[in-house]
Design a protein that fits this description.
The complex is a heterodimer.
Chain A: H1 9-27, H2 36-53, E1 59-61, E2 66-68, H3 70-97, H4 101-117, H5 124-142, H6 149-180, H7 185-194, H8 200-216, H9 225-232, H10 235-260, H11 265-287, H12 293-313, H13 322-354, H14 368-371, H15 373-387, H16 393-406, H17 411-440, H18 454-472, H19 475-481
Antiparallel strand pairs in A: 1-2
Helix pairs in contact in A: 1-2, 1-4, 2-3, 3-4, 3-10, 3-13, 3-18, 4-5, 4-10, 5-6, 5-10, 6-8, 6-9, 7-10, 8-10, 9-10, 9-12, 10-12, 10-13, 11-12, 11-17, 12-13, 12-16, 12-17, 13-15, 13-16, 13-18, 15-17, 15-18, 16-17, 16-18
Chain B: H1 3-24, H2 28-48, H3 52-77, H4 91-113, H5 131-141, H6 143-164, H7 168-171
Classes of the chains: A mainly alpha, B mainly alpha.
Chain lengths: 490, 212
């Protein structure tokens, strides 16, 4: 069986880079160890090059297990650009902290190998292996600040909940395999369509799989780990968990829900819709109470996961529902891309402020506009974008979700849409509170000067410009996401 | 009921009893040993079901490696072994959730198999694929997940070393420990919360021997 090596080139490049990073770390000593960062960046750029090269291609290899199409390429680009940004905000943080740098970058790259595989996987087994490759390095990365008890707590909570969710998911997957006799996602859809769809056991297994992914995207009521883990991890790792790891969960959930379990959409769509409502509302209400910026971002990211789950609530089965499902998948994809840009940026600013002092309550950001106007402006843009204010990309992300609702208006869709709007208003309250602190309040005396470093500043500026430019010209993303309709192959 | 069924039920009961003892036992070492018994029992179930390859893998991987790893882990970390180690306030809740899940899932399974909602379940003689076929499948069709798994295992290995290693030279001068100061905490000793070092450092940072 010939293997299409071009199709898996981004994964191969990342793997080779990860191994080179590991070897380089062994050879380098002392301060030179930080040079593994540019090495990893270089490998990521090559992987991006190969991914762009795959644009417009339709490739299938390893049977039908691995598919490269427009949908997969867009997702891969989101992941790889996120990796680039995370590498940028990691450099100084890890070089100054003198963590295990080589090991960190190796684990980071390995985690991203799993992510890049995820949107291409069309097989339960590969999907599961990819998800584990995302998670297991992340468990370790969350605990890298070994002398900080918060970090150990973060790693332990993340590990135990992660393992529990995987156990549930795997149990569900094994039942699905037992029922359909195949692990191929399209094959599962066919078997479900051919067979008796409302077997309680099958529905229970589908729910188990979906619950497993619910943990990954930190949807309520499976969100308990997220704030503690984000708050305790090293901050670049928190950015990676909040953005890339969550996006990987969504990539898997899209493949599972819209390809394999598409015939059962009438069952899982209302469940995910209700979860979306709970996730948005609870995340935002708890975020209102936060006084620690990272925990605020954590609860806000729980709420954002709720927005992204809304399109899942719209899904329907049958051949006449393709338009609805396509719109739903595109809305999720657009939201994820926008969310990655603004959230990594917000974490980048938090790293710049926090790295030297360890301080991170919102009160410590008072007067940031005087200490560093650029960082204050950037954080303002990111927070406004997370809230969904014009002229930022966040507005269009929310708009895409509401647009997906209008494709085929149902009562449930209207309820979901109104919850999105109500929650956006609630969210503005706490985002604007931080913005007010940044610009209006006086800085405390005796704070050290900020030295974000070139890489971090560059990443923050690029993301800030991106947030605004995409807000003015949202077509730059929608042109790509709108052709990703190939997903509904079933 | 054939003799085959009797053996199956006996092995199943043994496995279930060992599994219950695993979670009820007060002593971690006993729990680990019961876990090994449970895993061996599952190998027995596979054997009765004529899945000899699975039974062998179960023995080698779970009984041979995982269970022994547990015991080594207990010894090396000098984890508290006795009674006091296992206090958890949420025991009732945990029993409720896991018991509820167990009842629901077993009801669903019984419904599917006995209630007949699976359709006509045909009883067929199981003649699993030979080991040669399994080898061909792993290294031809399923080679991608296999290779990704090897990368995953490498990452797990590196990660375990990172977490276990204590080397002051490389990780000696870490970044500042997390300090969360909302400015309205009840005053403790050294109330000026911004004079450096007086903030409550919630770290385990007393291990500084030999660092730079």
């Amino acid at each position: 069986m010939p293997i299409d090596f071009i199709a898996i080139m981004p994964e191969i490049v990342l793997t080779v880079t990860a191994l080179l990073v590991l070897a380089a770390d062994l050879a380098l000593r002392g301060d030179a160890k930080q040079l593994v960062n540019p090495l990893a960046t270089f490998g990521t750029l090559i992987a991006i090059g190969f991914t762009v090269f795959l644009w417009g291609d339709e490739r299938t290899t390893f049977g039908t297990m691995f598919v490269v199409d427009a949908y997969a390429v867009v997702f891969k680009l989101v992941f790889l650009v996120a990796l680039l940004a995370i590498l940028g905000i990691s450099w100084r943080f890890f070089a100054e902290g003198r963590y295990f740098q080589g090991e960190y970058y190796f684990l980071l790259l390995t985690s991203f190998i799993g992510m890049v595989l995820m949107p291409s996987a069309r097989d339960l087994l590969l999907l599961f292996v990819a998800l584990e490759t995302v998670s297991i390095p992340a468990f370790v990365m969350a605990g890298l600040r070994k002398r900080d008890l918060y970090s150990s707590e973060a790693a332990l909570k993340f590990f135990i909940i992660g393992v529990l969710s995987v156990a549930l998911m795997l149990f569900g997957m094994s039942m699905v395999y037992g029922f359909t006799g195949t692990t191929d996602l399209v094959g599962i859809a066919e078997a479900i369509r051919a067979g008796d769809a409302d077997v309680p056991l099958l529905l229970g297994s589908v729910m188990l799989v979906i619950v497993g992914f619910g943990f990954k995207v930190s949807a309520v009521p499976f969100h308990f780990w997220a704030p503690d883990t984000y708050a305790g991890s090293p901050m670049p790792v928190a950015a990676m968990l909040a953005v890339a790891s969550k996006a990987a969960g969504f990539a898997g959930l899209i493949a599972i829900a819209f390809v394999a379990f598409e015939p059962l959409a009438e069952v899982w769509a209302p469940v995910l819709g209700v979860i979306a409502i709970l996730t948005m509302t609870l995340g935002n209400l708890i975020a209102l109470q936060q006084r620690d910026l990272i925990r605020l971002l954590a609860y806000s990211s729980v709420a954002q996961a709720g927005y992204m789950l809304v399109p899942f609530g719209l899904a329907r089965s049958g051949s006449d529902a393709i338009a609805v499902n396509d719109a739903a998948v595109q809305a999720v994809l657009f939201y994820l891309a926008a969310y990655a840009v603004m959230n990594i940026g917000a974490f980048g600013v938090a790293i710049a402020v926090n790295r030297r002092t360890g301080l991170r309550s919102i009160a410590d950001y008072a007067g940031l506009s005087a200490r560093s106007p650029l960082l204050a402006l950037a954080l303002t843009v990111f927070l406004l974008s997370l809230g969904g204010a014009p002229p930022t990309v966040g507005l269009w992300a929310k708009f895409a979700i509401l647009e997906a609702i209008t494709v085929d208006v149902t009562a449930f869709g209207v309820v979901l849409g109104s919850f999105v709007v109500i929650n956006s208003v609630i969210a503005f309250f706490y985002y604007l509170k931080v913005v007010k602190t940044l610009w209006m309040d006086e800085a405390r005396e005796g704070l050290p000067t900020l030295q974000p470093g070139f890489n971090l500043s560059a990443v923050v500026v690029v993301l800030m410009v991106g947030t605004v430019v995409l807000g003015v010209l949202p077509g730059l993303i929608t042109d790509f996401t709108s052709i990703t309709s190939v997903l509904a192959t079933g | 009921m054939t003799g085959h069924d009797v053996v199956f039920v006996l092995v199943g009961l043994l496995t279930a009893a060992a599994a219950i003892l695993t979670v009820t036992s007060k002593n971690l070492v006993h729990a680990a040993l019961f876990l090994a018994t449970t895993l061996a029992g599952i190998a027995g179930v596979f054997l009765v079901l004529a899945a000899d390859f699975l039974a062998l893998v179960q023995l080698v991987v779970y009984v041979g490696a995982v269970a022994v790893l547990f015991l080594f882990g207990l010894m090396l970390t000098r984890a508290p072994i006795g009674r006091e180690a296992l206090d958890n306030q949420n025991r009732g809740l945990a029993i409720g959730v896991s018991g509820g899940l167990f009842v629901v899932l077993s009801a669903l399974i019984v419904d599917a198999v006995v209630g007949g909602s699976l359709g006509d379940t045909t009883v067929a003689e199981v003649t699993g694929p030979g080991i040669e076929d399994i080898g061909m499948a792993i290294f031809a069709e399923w080679v991608l997940p296999f290779e990704v798994l090897s990368m995953l295992l490498l990452a797990a290995l590196i990660g375990a070393i990172v977490l276990a290693r204590r080397e002051p030279g490389d990780s000696g001068e870490e970044a500042m420990a997390t300090r969360i100061d909302f400015g309205d905490a009840p005053p403790t000793e050294g109330t000026d919360s911004l004079s450096s070092g007086s903030l409550p450092e919630l770290t385990s940072g007393e291990r500084r021997e030999g660092g730079p």
